[in-house]
Amino acid sequence: MSSLPNCPKCNSEYTYEDGSQFVCPECGHEWHPESEAAANGEDTKIYKDANGNVLNDGDSVTVIKDLKVKGSSSVVKVGTKVKNIRLVDEDHDIDCKIDGFGAMKLKSEFVKKI
């Protein structure tokens, strides 16, 4: 039997090695052995709001500080509610849509979970 890991996407047992990475012939997914630990959730980043509450995708948050919109003279006011946030691994942790402003990126330190 093979000692190769199952595919992290489709859990197929028919994976094979191609150079320095693994390949799944069923779904076509390719991954590096080092990234397998990250795919298993061992090194996942935890996002927290201003009060220390853990944020998840789809949460609703409230802005706790007036935020200037870069490239515009408008301001996102304190108390603005943002629904259905998406967490990303960038400088600004949150991708969202704010009514009246459109798509925005926010930092998690300027919001609190509802």
TrEMBL record:
Residues 3-31 form the Protein YjdM N-terminal domain. It comes from the Bacteria. Residues 48-113 form the Protein YjdM C-terminal domain. Pfam families: YjdM (PF03831), Zn_Ribbon_YjdM (PF08274). InterPro entries: YjdM, YjdM_C, YjdM_N. Belongs to the YjdM family. This is Protein YjdM. It comes from Cohnella endophytica.
